[in-house]
Amino acid sequence: MNDMRILERDVDTNTIKFAGRDVHVYYGETEAIKGIDVDIEDKTVTAFIGPSGCGKSTFLRCLNRMNDTIDVCRVTGKITLDGEDIYDRKVDPVQLRAKVGMVFQKPNPFPKSIYDNIAYGPRIHGLAKTKADLDDIVEQSLRRGAIWDEVKDRLDAPGTGLSGGQQQRLCIARAIATAPEVLLMDEPCSALDPIATAQVEELIDELRTNYSVVIVTHSMQQAARVSQKTAFFHLGDLVEFGPTNEIFTNPKDPRTESYITGRIG
Amino acid sequence: MPGILLILILCAIAAAGYVMGRRKAATISGDDNRVLHSNKPFHGANVALAAFLSGVVALVASGVIRGVTGIADSANIMTTVLTLGAAAAAFYVTLGRITLDYRARNVTEQLVKGILIAAASVAILTTIGIVLSMVFETINFFNQYPMLDFFFGTNWTPRFQGDSDLGMLPLLWGTLYVSFIALMVAVPIGLFAAIYLAEYAGPRVRGIAKPLLEVLAGIPTIVYGLFALITVGPILRDYFAQPMGLGDSGSSVMTAGLVMGVMLIPFVSSLSDDIINAVPQAMRDGSYGIGATKSETVKQVVLPAALPGIVGAILLAASRAIGETMIVVLGAGAAARLSLNPFEAMTTVTVKIVSQLTGDTDFASPETLVAFALGITLFVITLGLNVLALYIVRKYREQYE
Amino acid sequence: MTDATAPSAPVSGDAEPSSLFTQTNRTKRRNAAEKRFKAYGLGAIGIGILSLVVLLVSILGNGLPAFKQTYVVMDVTLDESVLDPNGNRNPEDIAKVLTFGYTPIIRGAAQNLVREMGGEVEGLTDGMIGDMISKEAAGQLRRFVLANPDLIGTTQEFKFLANGRIDGFFKGRVTMESAQIDSNVSPEQLVAAERLAEAGHLTTSFNLGFLTAPDASDQRPEAAGLGVAIIGSVYMMLVVLALALPIGVAASIYLEEFAPKNWITDIIEVNISNLAAVPSIVFGILGLAIFINYAHLPQSAPIVGGLVLTLMTLPTIIISTRASLKSVPPSIKDAALGVGASKMQTVFHHVLPLAMPGILTGAIIGLAQALGETAPLLLIGMVAFVRDYPGAPPEGLFDPSTALPVQVYNWTQRSDPAFFERASGAIIVLLVLLVLMNLVAIILRRRFERRW
């Protein structure tokens, strides 16, 4: 096992992973993100909260350039990953996304076997030299996705046959399998029942030891439970950003307070 | 034409029925709509419809009777009497039924509904007609020519004086060979075109390219046939077949296959385009989110997900290729042959149906009747492919709904 | 959840780049594959569109000359001793002179014309000169004389069709070289034709006869026209429109609005989608067996063609009509039902009018399909050689006729290559009609399309 990098990374906790400066996002004529600055730390769970349409998902999708797949979407300003501008012309979004994995709102397993779902990423990125390597990556990823015990006897079964919560953990495991440095999660629990949600939340907390996790959520309780840092978005602005307990107990901005106390939403 | 005249008379009776029915309803109600169950026009329409429909039914029935019994009704006396009699009787009965409480609207609507059902059953009747029109003549044919020799014979040499060899295999081989080449052209091109349109093309390219490709589907097959005959055939012969020593016929399996392939491109591409678009975006996002390129996503996620639908589309295209007539009539040739050389003229089931049923036909000789056996074979093959394809496509659609 | 904290990260095989700015070899390879894949897609579309262009260019190139025709302009003396031997100008007597009588007059006039121009062409016989005029000319002259008996004995200027080979010479289809080995034309005739053209006696002008004249026999491709075929096609379209539209709409209304959901309806639905995919030639067999052999309708008649095409078009019309009916929002039905309309009234007063533009669009597209259909018409005898125009409908529907696409097929089976030009020309006419129909459909859709 090549875990040198992991150990190394453990040392420099709380270094800044992502830094956004004056980021604007436009969908055609409309401005969805209106110039925000944000620093996202390594080995931390950062939660983006805010009412629907506030731009939190849009911003999340900027971080691994998923917005590139939308024709009318345009991003200005600067977002850096480890100091490198990810919107630089030299950057290949494909390579970026290998480093910055993403988990989506609805579980979206591929119509393949559980094994192939996980092996898909390592295969396209050429992470495994041999079949044994690949088997190993699949097992490790499924273990980290906290779903190994449930599926180890039926790796050949289709991924679509799992329950909602299992599917979402499978998708998380799939994202982990490409050895990313950051995991972006876009409302990963919104399609899940409370028990499955609890399992995924527990998993997110465990992932923090190895990855920088950014999670968009509708649920303030969830943000409070899983995150260390929270960013509150409102109408395309980043209103407030700070340690989660401060945001929830002592918000500085009146809009944050209104949202947290349920007056806007 | 007495039929047309009779129908005109029926229309006149119906018009009279409408006027009289309406008037009677007005009279008995004292022109007060509220004491009538149904509005006056319904009473009129009821009489009109009843008379007209009875007349038409009688007209059709007498036609069938004449056909079945062979009564020589040369002056159409029986038909006329039956038709007008039925119309008059229905007229009299329905007019007599008009009372204040008579539910003319409900009855009219039932009649209209009957007409609608009759219209819908035309589709069923067509299928029955297709089967019946071929089954009897086919049985006739097999009474004169052994079934096994037809299905498994490798010689096709019809002779005017009789004693023909009518083995279907050379025709079937020609059909399958042409269809195979057509699919080899249409499936890759159509599929790649669909992938490009669905995954890569921006709205502008799509807005231009898609209608242009669909123009290919709107062009009549006779146009493709002529194209094969005067352009593609000579080019293939002069630049490929003759230099390579593979033959010197303009009509060939290759000619017909290539042109048919072009015809099928839009067929494969627009069906596949729909099917690829039905694959949920979430699945693509999942793949992009891992860092897959577009082509990797298409090859490893989108296409496997869309596979059943695409297989269905290809089966439909195959069924169309097998049943296609004009392109092979003009492009493939008329010689029944079992050969592998694609530059040789071969013939197909459809070509032989045309050639056996045009010109002088004698419906007692096996040389003519064989066309019906070929027709039913063709029908069964294409029907099987269609049913299978529609089933697969429907299952696929349900999966993503 | 206990084993989730396994300390090791997944193996990373390829050395991950420390910087995003440098592409790994693997990424380069993958991007190259991506470019290739995209190029395949673009190439496929290119091939498709290129085929369309080649097809159209080929047809236009071959067919446009059919709209131009070479004519010989010359004076003909209407010799009384031949045309009206009794000298009484009695139309009945004049009509007794058949076209055989007129032929020598035309041939003589042509010979005079060529000889008078001077510049003897070696080896040009009188017979050759006579053959330069279309055999159709005699009939044209006879019709003229019968219409104008007073002009017998005078000299009139006529514009006759030139022989197909002479016409082909001016269109580039026939050359001096090909004439040497062609038994139907000689190089001498071509030389004479060139001289005539220089003298202004041979002109090329728009060929109206191509659109109006009936078919002509194998020896006179220059006279062959589409008149009968166009009338036949129009008649069949009338039959299809009159039958397929009402039946199709009625069937759709039943299936969409009234049919109970049971196995019978299921069978009808499956049946319709299958009928839409049945090979057209099978419908031809149906027409032959049912309409001709069983019902004893006449062969080659537009009514039979129309009936067969109706059955073929019905599924298309039903499918598109049902789609338009379905697109009418249920709220409108609810509103009508809510004010006490019966279901039947709701459908006929509200749903049907709102769906009408869509239904008509579908019907036109179905009609366009039917117009280009060939195979089934071959089987019901429409390939016959028909020179008489069918009468006016409804009786005309039972007269022998042919149809545009069938005429194309018919001409491809002739030996003279001049007919290929005619066939391509006929295709152009067919395509123009199809484009017009589709334009109407598009305009209908644009103008009345409603978004709910």
Features:
heterotrimer, A: 265 residues, alpha/beta, Rossmann fold, 6-stranded mixed β-sheet, 4-stranded antiparallel β-sheet, 10 strands, globular, disordered N terminus, C: 452 residues, mainly alpha, MetI-like fold, 2 domains, 3-stranded antiparallel β-sheet, 19 helices, 3 strands, 5% strand, phosphate transmembrane transporter activity (chain A), ABC_transporter-like_ATP-bd (chain A)
What does this structure look like?
The complex is a heterotrimer of chains A (265), B (401) and C (452). Chain A contains eleven helices and ten strands. With 265 residues, chain A is an alpha/beta fold. Chain A has a single domain (4-110, 181-260), classed as 3-Layer(aba) Sandwich (Rossmann fold), CATH 3.40.50. Residues 1-12 of chain A have low confidence and may be disordered. Chain B has 401 residues and is mainly alpha-helical. In chain B, a hairpin with a 7-residue loop joins strand 1 (156-157) and strand 2 (165-166). The mean pLDDT of chain B is 88. With 452 residues, chain C is mainly α. In chain C, 62% of the residues lie in helices and 5% in strands. The longest helix of chain C has 39 residues, at 25-63. The relative contact order of chain C is 0.10. At the B-C interface, helix 4, helix 6, helix 7, helix 8 and helix 9 of B face helix 1, helix 11, helix 12, helix 13 and helix 14 of C. Chain B: Part of the binding-protein-dependent transport system for phosphate; probably responsible for the translocation of the substrate across the membrane. Chain B: The chain crosses the membrane at residues 6-21, 42-65, 77-95, 115-136, 176-200, 212-236, 256-280, 301-322, 369-393. Chain B: Belongs to the binding-protein-dependent transport system permease family. CysTW subfamily.
